[in-house]
Design a protein that fits this description.
Elements (H helix, E strand, L loop, with lengths): L1 H9 L14 H8 L8 E10 L8 E8 L9 E11 L2 E8 L3 E3 L7 E3 L3 E7 L12 E3 L5 E5 L5 E7 L5 E13 L2 E9 L5 E10 L8 E8 L13 E5 L3 E2 L2 E2 L2 E7 L12 E6 L2 E6 L11 E4 L2 H8 L3
Antiparallel strand pairs: 1-14, 1-18, 2-11, 2-15, 2-16, 3-4, 3-14, 4-7, 5-6, 7-10, 8-13, 9-10, 11-12, 12-13, 15-20, 16-17, 18-21, 19-20
């Protein structure tokens, strides 16, 4: 019997239960009486508004917890850094079920490497191309890209087989070369082991982090999986830490885009749990428009922790 189970598992006949499985987006949309917008779908956005910008910025850390294993059959992007700005320069990143890009700075052939981490930045005006001289890889397995289909950007990605559990997405200020500075992205697991993704170069030597931060959960499209299902999953974002500390907060809120994009079918809710923001993704439904944007009551607990109470 043990030998039979081993043969079935290694041959791909026997699969672990998919706890993320739901009906297809098309079936759920039909049942809810709604239309599906084009991919990608930002199923939920989370915003934190700080009391003021953070000067002399050196690091950003955001904890993220995924409550179940998400198979690579889905295109899921969990972004603890949905958008951020330092000296007006925008960047973002997170973890994906299916990273893709160019295998080297010389290649333009798109390859797919499964689960991994990602760190991307736009050019200063999003219209001037930004080359791969702004990118440093952490290992030969890293992927890179410089393109303009989402505004001119440069990016580094690295395979990393994440599962359910808690991770910390980080960027850290590194070496300054002339009038530019390298920032390195890494992902720490719950045991503290760091997995470096790669580095991006930013113009400047001393940086100010803007007075906001965002995170999102997205279902996206790839040439490998043009139409992804929507996985049932719960994602918890911790409070952003800047220069190793929690920042005094004015407020936090959730937003579910349906006009002005990236639009999404309504399939998620965000709630506050203490200092955390929890995104629960499930079936498609019709949202009350009065609740498309709503506050998240994390400010009081964060204000108390910043005062040392």
């Amino acid at each position: 019997m043990k030998r039979l189970l081993f043969i079935l598992m290694t041959s791909g006949v026997l699969h672990a239960e998919d706890l993320c499985q739901q009906p297809s987006p098309e079936a759920m949309a039909e049942a809810a009486g709604v239309k599906l917008p084009p991919l990608p779908w930002h199923v939920a956005n989370v915003w934190w508004d700080f009391e003021k910008p953070v000067e002399h910025f050196t690091s950003l850390e955001v904890d993220v917890t995924i409550d179940r294993d998400v198979p690579e059959d889905y295109n899921l992007y969990i972004s603890p850094c949905g958008i951020a700005k330092i000296n007006g320069l925008q960047f973002y990143g997170g973890i994906q079920t299916n990273i893709n890009g160019w295998a080297s700075k010389e290649s333009r052939e798109r390859v797919h490497r499964g689960k991994g981490g990602i760190f991307s930045r736009w050019s200063s005006d999003k219209t001037t191309p930004i080359g791969l001289d702004h990118v440093r890889t952490a290992a030969d397995e890293c992927l890179v890209e410089s393109a303009g289909y989402e505004g001119e950007f440069a990016s580094v990605r690295r395979p990393f087989v994440w599962t359910k559990g808690t991770y910390t997405w980080c960027i850290t200020k590194g070496v300054t070369e002339g009038e530019s500075t390298w920032f390195t992205c890494s992902i720490r697991d719950a045991k503290g082991a760091a997995h470096e993704v790669g580095s991006l170069r930013f113009e400047g030597t001393d940086f100010t982090f803007w007075e906001r931060h965002s995170a999102f959960v997205e279902v996206y499209s790839t040439s490998k999986i043009p139409k992804s299902g929507i996985p049932k999953v719960k994602v918890t974002f911790g409070c952003p830490r800047l220069n190793g500390k929690k920042v005094p907060l004015k407020k936090a809120h959730a937003y579910y885009p349906d006009k002005g994009g990236p639009d999404s079918p309504d399939c998620a809710w965000v709630k506050a749990e203490g200092e955390n923001c929890v995104v629960e993704v499930g079936p498609i439904f019709k949202r009350d428009e009065a609740k498309r944007r709503h506050d998240l009551n994390v400010a009081d607990s964060l204000r108390e922790s910043s005062l040392g109470r």
